[in-house]
Amino acid sequence: MKNQYIIVLLAVLCVQFSVAQFTLDGQFRPRTEYRHGYGNVIPDAADAGFAISTRARLNVSYDIDSYLFYLSFQDVMVWGENRQILPDDQNDSFAVFEAWAAINLGKGWSTKLGRQVISYDDQRIFGGLDWAQQGRNHDAGLLKYKKEKFMLDVGLAFSQDFDNPAGFQSVGTAYNTTGFFTYKTMQYLYAKQQWTDFSGSILALNNGFQNFNILDEADGTSNLQTIGAHLEYKKGSFNASANVFLQTGERQNIVKVGGAYLIGLELGYKASDKVALGLGTEIISGNKADTTDKTEAFFPLYGTNHKFNGFMDYFYVGNHANSVGLTDIHASAKFDLGKKSSLLVKVLNFSGQQELASGEKSLGTELDLVFSKSFNGYGLAVGYSQMFASDGMYELKGVTEELAANSQNWAWVMLTIKPKLFSSSKE
């Protein structure tokens, strides 16, 4: 398969550039991580994790008046995962990350078809999840309209897996790929209007999930609706943003959802040329129903969840999907240190939106530190996070305080290089 991708790339390189803009660029991003409580409370008897991973991308774009074609190859490599002279990659992670075409339909209308990143606003519901080395993409078709400060997107997706045991499905459309809210169908409408100091957007999203019966056979589809709005205001040194989203319908296998919500508010103030302050809160509803076929817990689905609720990813990053919800109150300060460098300091206090079985709600406090510096053509970022767990966190994560390590922390260093290999301009 790799040889086929290279042949396609070479074919693209042979095109004539006289009436088009052709760009070839890439990304090289190694990241070293020390994990001693990342994502979960680590027991004292467990050893810390330490590893280095690299994301490598090669991107091709071809732009003419009638359409834009984009192709992105990607491989995610963990250092040492392959033995010496192994003929094939151990994890088979080489893939096409994006492959889409945007066709100009005229009068502000266009369509975008294929594998693509879908990202809106602050990336709370739809985001590219760029922090994760593999990123997030969607196989979808979009009908788009844009005029001045108004935009409208209508998205449609229908997922199938021709590599499932049934092979090519000439009868039926059962979809056997599951996990992490992988959908069989998706339909959404997104609209945004901008004014001088204010902008507002609305999102109406429906996801259909394949159900399975007790014999693990496909058995209909459950549909989950997510509806809400994102608002932003900025004037002078002050800025504010808000999220309000509701969920209803059914999760996979007919788990009824009702009364699920997410409410968030962020305030920012530029105290000086060197200091930016932030204060915010987010409330995500939890499950208080003592049944397995109904939930009031909201899940933010396809957003960049690492950006929210602490960088240690204790909540909503492949976890916390049907739990006690979350109340997150946080404050931050970003310092411009000069010479293209900055330091972010953020403190977050967590509690359950619903009580745990013991009646406890307090979960703990997290401290996040991130130092970033740009150099000539590349960037370096260094992060450190510390979790100060409360009694509720130990209960939630299933590790007693007596067995837990005294310190729960995480540190990382990441280098990002984005070479522009070739670019031609339209005549």
Spatial shape: globular
- What is the CA–CA distance across the termini? 35 Å
Number of helices: 2
The main sheet comes to:
18 strands, antiparallel, barrel
Order of helices and strands: HEEEEEEEEEEEEEEEEEEHEE
Cα-atom Rg, whole angstroms?
Answer: 23 Å
Whole-number mean pLDDT: 92
Oligomer classification: single chain
Instruction: Please indicate the percent range of residues in DSSP E strands (runs of 2 or more).
Output: over 45%
Report on the architecture of this protein.
The protein is mostly beta strands. It has one domain: Beta Barrel (Porin), CATH 2.40.160. It is built from 2 helices and 20 strands. The mean pLDDT is 92.
Structural features:
18-stranded antiparallel barrel, globular, 4% helix, mainly beta, 54% strand, 20 strands, Porin, 427 residues
